[in-house]
């Protein structure tokens, strides 16, 4: 059974302080995941996780991850600003952007972040906007389908990211001539995968490429960036990824390729979902029930607080607090209040009988949850609350007010 890390009495106490809806993040869980990851790759000298800021761009969370030894993976000006404000500098920042504005390269270079170039044409663009650094990463797109055995894990041929192998090699040569000395190679070929072979197979491909590039260009390939993509068990029947096993799988590939060639590379990752996804909950209250052709439960949270179900039809598990053990014998659509029929957190979900005022908790909102939020229908973004290791709570982002919503207009002084 999939249950939250808190019970009904605890959440009722928390709701007295912070009205629903809000996202609640479990500090203990986040720290444990970060430690397990660092342990799984501790065999590799120079290993570093760069948390994908877009997954959960909250400074308090980033600070927790910094304490656990993580860097940050940024892709925009504001993400770089967050990184700078929290004291991340130099090689603690990976700048894995695409379609990058000039001023963002200038800013990333000012922070001495590692630039991860998405395209060959960005070499000259970076030269003019910030300059070529000594250490630089290139993003690879192998084309075709990315397969493990017979299952297709991703379709790089159809993805906008990265450069071809020919461009990668030409890029390394060109950058070397411009003064770059150390190179990284990055690829992101599958998203939200709980297949423990994903990282090992991706690593094998990139390690082999690193050996080849080193032979052909003579350049020092000093790191391999496996990016993000490791998934989480959204459904109760999904098995979590055993990260220790993943680390071992990557180590085997390392020995067969990099070590065999007498080379040494540091491994970098940019995990987002895996780090914080399972450790967030969207906490909401049941406002209405309506019975027409189906039975609808209406929450005070809606798709602006969590877009994944509306956007991808993604499954998010739901717990009705205090009714965990009751028979799940009623079929509901659980909805928000947007004037959009896809504003449904669940469709035809078997749940215990729900009453108005019940607390409904939506699981796995700790990554790509709050951060995908928007303001459609004039709905406001919720608060974010940290559940600390000692059981106390801290408001780590206040809820938006109408004033925030109107802040970009210039007629507010008439209110
Ligand atoms: C989104 C993204 C990540 C994180 O992806 P997850 O699926 O959350 O692990 C890492 N790197 C890059 C470049 C990304 O765009």
Per DSSP E runs of 2 or more residues, the count of β-strands stands at 19
Q: Could you estimate the helical fraction of the residues in percent?
A: 25-40%
Mean pLDDT: 97
* Termini separation: 50 Å
How would you summarize what this structure contains?
The chain has 415 residues and is α/β, with parallel strands linked by helices. It contains twelve helices and 19 strands. The protein has helices at residues 8-17, 27-40, 59-67, 77-85, 102-110, 122-128, 165-177, 198-217, 243-259, 273-276, 308-312, 402-406; strands at residues 22-26, 48-52, 71-74, 93-95, 114-117, 135-139, 146-148, 151-154, 182-186, 220-225, 266-269, 280-291, 295-299, 318-320, 330-335, 344-351, 359-363, 383-387, 393-397.
Characterization of this structure:
This protein has 415 residues and is α/β, with parallel strands linked by helices. It has helices at residues 8-17, 27-40, 59-67, 77-85, 102-110, 122-128, 165-177, 198-217, 243-259, 273-276, 308-312, 402-406; strands at 22-26, 48-52, 71-74, 93-95, 114-117, 135-139, 146-148, 151-154, 182-186, 220-225, 266-269, 280-291, 295-299, 318-320, 330-335, 344-351, 359-363, 383-387, 393-397. Strands 1, 12, 13, 14, 15, 16, 17, 18 and 19 form a nine-stranded mixed beta sheet that branches. The protein has an eight-stranded parallel barrel with strand order 2-3-4-5-6-9-10-11, surrounded by five helices. A hairpin with a 5-residue loop joins strand 18 and strand 19 (393-397). Helix 2 (27-40) runs parallel beside helix 9 and helix 8 packs parallel to helix 9. It is globular. The protein starts with 7 loop residues before the first helix and ends in a 9-residue tail after the last helix. 43% of the residues are buried. The model has no long low-confidence stretch (mean pLDDT 97). Pyridoxal-5'-phosphate binds at residues 52, 54-55, 73, 96, 188, 191-192, 227-229, 270-274, 367.
